[in-house]
Amino acid sequence: MADSKNPSVTQAQAEEAVRTLLRWAGEDPAREGLLDTPRRVAEAYGDWFKGYREDPREYLERTFEEVAGYDEMIVLRDIEYESHCEHHMAPIIGRVHVGYVPSGRVVGISKLARVVEAYARRFQVQEKMTAQIAHCIQSVLQPLGVGVVVEGSHECMTTRGIHKRGVSMVTSSMRGSFHDDARTRAEFLRFIEVGQARR
Protein backbone atom coordinates (compact mmCIF):
# COMPACT_ATOMS: atom_id res chain seq x y z
CA MET A 1 0.00 0.00 0.00
CA ALA A 2 1.31 3.43 -0.82
CA ASP A 3 2.71 5.18 2.26
CA SER A 4 1.93 2.08 4.32
CA LYS A 5 2.97 1.83 7.96
CA ASN A 6 4.22 -1.67 7.15
CA PRO A 7 7.05 -1.35 4.62
CA SER A 8 7.13 -5.14 4.14
CA VAL A 9 3.83 -4.93 2.21
CA THR A 10 4.10 -3.29 -1.19
CA GLN A 11 1.45 -1.55 -3.26
CA ALA A 12 1.66 -4.41 -5.77
CA GLN A 13 1.05 -7.01 -3.04
CA ALA A 14 -1.94 -5.09 -1.73
CA GLU A 15 -3.42 -4.85 -5.21
CA GLU A 16 -2.89 -8.58 -5.82
CA ALA A 17 -4.74 -9.31 -2.56
CA VAL A 18 -7.71 -7.34 -3.90
CA ARG A 19 -7.62 -9.35 -7.14
CA THR A 20 -7.68 -12.54 -5.08
CA LEU A 21 -10.77 -11.37 -3.22
CA LEU A 22 -12.47 -10.44 -6.48
CA ARG A 23 -11.79 -13.92 -7.87
CA TRP A 24 -12.99 -15.51 -4.62
CA ALA A 25 -16.23 -13.51 -4.86
CA GLY A 26 -16.78 -14.90 -8.37
CA GLU A 27 -15.55 -11.95 -10.42
CA ASP A 28 -12.93 -11.59 -13.13
CA PRO A 29 -10.32 -8.97 -12.10
CA ALA A 30 -9.37 -8.63 -15.78
CA ARG A 31 -12.86 -7.38 -16.66
CA GLU A 32 -12.76 -3.80 -17.96
CA GLY A 33 -14.78 -2.35 -15.10
CA LEU A 34 -12.48 -3.93 -12.50
CA LEU A 35 -9.07 -3.24 -14.04
CA ASP A 36 -8.40 -0.21 -11.81
CA THR A 37 -10.28 -1.52 -8.77
CA PRO A 38 -7.24 -3.03 -7.00
CA ARG A 39 -5.36 0.28 -7.23
CA ARG A 40 -8.40 2.24 -6.07
CA VAL A 41 -8.99 -0.09 -3.11
CA ALA A 42 -5.33 0.10 -2.03
CA GLU A 43 -5.45 3.89 -2.20
CA ALA A 44 -8.73 3.94 -0.26
CA TYR A 45 -7.16 1.78 2.45
CA GLY A 46 -4.31 4.27 2.65
CA ASP A 47 -6.87 6.95 3.49
CA TRP A 48 -9.22 4.87 5.69
CA PHE A 49 -6.37 3.62 7.86
CA LYS A 50 -4.03 6.60 7.94
CA GLY A 51 -4.47 6.66 11.72
CA TYR A 52 -1.75 4.04 11.98
CA ARG A 53 0.71 6.62 10.67
CA GLU A 54 -0.30 9.28 13.23
CA ASP A 55 0.47 9.78 16.91
CA PRO A 56 -2.66 11.29 18.49
CA ARG A 57 -0.66 12.54 21.48
CA GLU A 58 1.24 14.99 19.26
CA TYR A 59 -1.96 16.89 18.52
CA LEU A 60 -2.36 17.77 22.20
CA GLU A 61 1.18 18.92 22.93
CA ARG A 62 0.60 22.57 22.01
CA THR A 63 -1.60 24.14 24.67
CA PHE A 64 -2.63 27.61 25.77
CA GLU A 65 -2.44 28.98 29.31
CA GLU A 66 -3.66 32.54 28.69
CA VAL A 67 -7.36 31.86 29.17
CA ALA A 68 -8.11 34.45 31.89
CA GLY A 69 -8.37 31.75 34.54
CA TYR A 70 -11.08 29.78 32.72
CA ASP A 71 -11.59 26.55 34.63
CA GLU A 72 -15.05 25.37 33.63
CA MET A 73 -15.99 22.47 31.38
CA ILE A 74 -15.10 22.55 27.70
CA VAL A 75 -17.23 20.39 25.40
CA LEU A 76 -16.83 19.59 21.72
CA ARG A 77 -19.83 17.65 20.49
CA ASP A 78 -20.90 15.98 17.27
CA ILE A 79 -17.43 15.15 15.95
CA GLU A 80 -18.32 12.95 12.98
CA TYR A 81 -16.12 9.93 12.37
CA GLU A 82 -15.75 7.00 10.00
CA SER A 83 -14.04 3.85 11.18
CA HIS A 84 -13.96 0.13 10.37
CA CYS A 85 -14.85 -2.83 12.55
CA GLU A 86 -11.83 -5.04 13.17
CA HIS A 87 -14.00 -8.17 13.12
CA HIS A 88 -15.55 -7.81 9.66
CA MET A 89 -13.68 -4.79 8.20
CA ALA A 90 -17.10 -3.14 7.75
CA PRO A 91 -17.69 0.61 8.27
CA ILE A 92 -18.64 2.17 11.60
CA ILE A 93 -20.08 5.66 11.20
CA GLY A 94 -21.05 7.96 14.01
CA ARG A 95 -20.29 10.89 16.28
CA VAL A 96 -18.01 11.52 19.24
CA HIS A 97 -18.59 13.99 22.07
CA VAL A 98 -15.60 15.08 24.16
CA GLY A 99 -15.53 17.15 27.33
CA TYR A 100 -12.83 18.06 29.82
CA VAL A 101 -12.24 20.36 32.78
CA PRO A 102 -8.86 22.05 32.29
CA SER A 103 -6.26 22.35 35.01
CA GLY A 104 -4.64 25.51 33.70
CA ARG A 105 -4.08 24.49 30.07
CA VAL A 106 -6.48 24.25 27.15
CA VAL A 107 -5.96 22.89 23.66
CA GLY A 108 -7.25 24.13 20.31
CA ILE A 109 -10.62 22.52 19.64
CA SER A 110 -9.56 21.20 16.24
CA LYS A 111 -6.91 19.14 18.02
CA LEU A 112 -9.58 17.20 19.88
CA ALA A 113 -11.21 16.35 16.56
CA ARG A 114 -7.82 15.25 15.20
CA VAL A 115 -7.35 12.89 18.15
CA VAL A 116 -10.72 11.32 17.37
CA GLU A 117 -9.79 11.03 13.69
CA ALA A 118 -6.43 9.40 14.41
CA TYR A 119 -8.03 6.62 16.45
CA ALA A 120 -11.04 6.22 14.17
CA ARG A 121 -8.85 5.74 11.09
CA ARG A 122 -7.77 2.31 12.33
CA PHE A 123 -9.46 -1.05 12.64
CA GLN A 124 -11.53 -0.60 15.76
CA VAL A 125 -13.86 -1.91 18.41
CA GLN A 126 -16.01 0.99 19.57
CA GLU A 127 -15.39 0.32 23.25
CA LYS A 128 -11.63 0.38 22.70
CA MET A 129 -11.74 3.55 20.62
CA THR A 130 -13.76 5.31 23.34
CA ALA A 131 -11.19 4.38 25.99
CA GLN A 132 -8.25 5.30 23.75
CA ILE A 133 -9.57 8.82 23.13
CA ALA A 134 -10.23 9.42 26.83
CA HIS A 135 -6.86 8.02 27.90
CA CYS A 136 -4.97 10.13 25.37
CA ILE A 137 -6.61 13.38 26.50
CA GLN A 138 -6.20 12.53 30.18
CA SER A 139 -2.56 11.49 29.93
CA VAL A 140 -1.38 14.41 27.79
CA LEU A 141 -3.44 17.36 29.06
CA GLN A 142 -3.72 16.16 32.69
CA PRO A 143 -7.12 17.88 33.13
CA LEU A 144 -9.26 17.57 36.23
CA GLY A 145 -11.53 15.22 34.31
CA VAL A 146 -12.43 13.90 30.87
CA GLY A 147 -15.64 12.54 29.40
CA VAL A 148 -15.97 10.81 26.04
CA VAL A 149 -19.20 9.48 24.56
CA VAL A 150 -19.20 7.67 21.20
CA GLU A 151 -22.25 6.88 19.08
CA GLY A 152 -21.84 4.46 16.20
CA SER A 153 -23.81 2.66 13.52
CA HIS A 154 -22.10 -0.63 12.70
CA GLU A 155 -22.45 -1.84 9.12
CA CYS A 156 -21.34 -5.32 10.19
CA MET A 157 -24.75 -5.51 11.88
CA THR A 158 -26.86 -3.57 9.37
CA THR A 159 -25.63 -5.08 6.09
CA ARG A 160 -24.91 -8.67 7.16
CA GLY A 161 -25.80 -11.10 9.93
CA ILE A 162 -28.90 -9.90 11.74
CA HIS A 163 -29.54 -7.04 9.21
CA LYS A 164 -30.97 -4.60 11.74
CA ARG A 165 -30.98 -0.99 10.53
CA GLY A 166 -31.49 2.13 12.59
CA VAL A 167 -29.57 0.71 15.55
CA SER A 168 -26.81 2.75 17.14
CA MET A 169 -24.37 1.80 19.87
CA VAL A 170 -23.39 4.24 22.62
CA THR A 171 -20.23 3.88 24.71
CA SER A 172 -18.66 6.19 27.26
CA SER A 173 -15.45 6.66 29.20
CA MET A 174 -15.34 8.98 32.20
CA ARG A 175 -12.08 9.93 33.91
CA GLY A 176 -11.26 12.06 36.95
CA SER A 177 -14.06 14.41 38.02
CA PHE A 178 -16.34 13.08 35.27
CA HIS A 179 -16.15 9.68 36.95
CA ASP A 180 -16.07 10.76 40.58
CA ASP A 181 -18.52 13.69 40.60
CA ALA A 182 -22.09 12.90 39.55
CA ARG A 183 -22.85 16.60 38.99
CA THR A 184 -19.95 17.03 36.56
CA ARG A 185 -20.98 13.91 34.69
CA ALA A 186 -24.61 15.04 34.55
CA GLU A 187 -23.60 18.48 33.25
CA PHE A 188 -21.57 16.88 30.46
CA LEU A 189 -24.37 14.50 29.47
CA ARG A 190 -26.84 17.39 29.49
CA PHE A 191 -24.58 19.37 27.17
CA ILE A 192 -24.37 16.59 24.62
CA GLU A 193 -27.95 15.21 24.93
CA VAL A 194 -27.12 11.89 23.26
CA GLY A 195 -29.95 10.53 21.15
CA GLN A 196 -32.17 13.57 21.61
CA ALA A 197 -33.12 16.41 19.28
CA ARG A 198 -31.51 19.63 20.45
CA ARG A 199 -33.51 22.84 20.66
Automatic annotation (TrEMBL):
Alphabetic keyword roster: GTP-binding, Hydrolase, Metal-binding, Nucleotide-binding, One-carbon metabolism, Zinc
Keyword Glycosyltransferase found: no
Chain residues that bind Zn(2+): 85, 88, 156
Reaction catalysis annotation: GTP + H2O = 7,8-dihydroneopterin 3'-triphosphate + formate + H(+)
Residue stretches in coiled coil: none
GO molecular function annotations of the record: GTP cyclohydrolase I activity
EC number(s) on file: 3.5.4.16
Top-level EC class: hydrolase
Pathway: Cofactor biosynthesis; 7,8-dihydroneopterin triphosphate biosynthesis; 7,8-dihydroneopterin triphosphate from GTP: step 1/1
Domain GTP cyclohydrolase I: 15-192
Similarity section: Belongs to the GTP cyclohydrolase I family.
Subunit structure: Homopolymer.
Stated name of the protein: GTP cyclohydrolase 1
Organism: Stenotrophomonas mori
Higher taxonomy: Bacteria, Pseudomonadati, Pseudomonadota, Gammaproteobacteria, Lysobacterales
